[in-house]
Backbone:
């Protein structure tokens, strides 16, 4: 059996469903990289994560990072590139030859690539559902595109509104709605973010970072109103390719 000398991994919690592992396994097969492997590094807590970075990370050449550790990994890094620092979330780590850890954010690249073709000059305002690491990456992209945005969360705060505050007027003004929350992910396919769907029109763009199911209830309700919709698959593929470039 050929020894796997080029190991990569996904760091996260409860990640048996992992898109990344299948994607890179298929990629290595296609490129005939028999010494490459990609595995899930499933950690239940910050303590388990710390133990991994103390003892085991040197066997790897790079990592993808998913929830809930996109912020937790900062304390183990030797360097963080500017974009990831500004966003406050790392989803890609390069391990250098001398075992230094450098953090990047490829969600920005993936999201921009996926949503830009859907936007027209009338799409100047967005609602971002959720306030986690992915939501911050989405906001960073909108800053770059000159799109103003409002964060929406279960509770109101200094920089966010509650779902209950979304009015007809707000929906009419914000023609882009991005779901960065996990609501609607398999197996909870009968759930969707609590926004006033009757006010969605054919001018709206609905983007869901979820990719399983391929059409969430959030997207389905948008489609029934004539909105343009897209799930998170292309974003994931784009950011995976960006991670591959960084590692190599």
Residues:
């Amino acid at each position: 059996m050929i020894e796997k000398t080029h190991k990569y991994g996904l760091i996260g919690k409860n990640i048996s469903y992992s898109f990344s592992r299948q994607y890179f396994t298929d990629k290595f097969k296609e490129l005939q990289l028999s010494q490459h492997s990609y595995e899930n590094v499933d950690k239940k807590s910050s303590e388990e994560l710390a133990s991994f970075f103390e003892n085991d990370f040197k066997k790897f050449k790079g990592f993808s990072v998913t929830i809930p550790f996109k912020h937790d990994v900062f304390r183990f890094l030797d360097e963080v590139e500017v974009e990831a620092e500004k966003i406050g979330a790392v989803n890609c780590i390069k391990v250098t030859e001398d075992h230094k850890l450098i953090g990047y954010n490829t969600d920005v690249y993936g999201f921009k690539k996926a949503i830009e073709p859907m936007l027209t000059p009338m799409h100047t305002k967005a609602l971002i559902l959720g306030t986690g690491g992915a939501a911050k990456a989405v906001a960073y992209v909108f800053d770059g595109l000159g799109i103003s945005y409002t964060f929406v969360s279960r509770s109101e705060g200094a920089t966010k509104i509650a779902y209950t505050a979304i009015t007809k007027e707000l929906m009419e003004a914000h023609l882009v709605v991005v779901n960065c929350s996990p609501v609607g992910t398999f197996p909870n396919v009968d759930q969707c973010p609590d926004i006033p769907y009757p006010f969605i029109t054919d001018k709206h763009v609905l983007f869901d970072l979820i990719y399983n199911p391929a059409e969430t209830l959030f997207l389905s309700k948008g489609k029934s109103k004539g909105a343009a919709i897209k799930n998170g698959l292309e974003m994931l593929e784009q950011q995976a390719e960006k991670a591959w470039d960084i590692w190599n």
About this structure: Residues 6-105 form a domain with the Rossmann fold fold (CATH 3.40.50.10860).
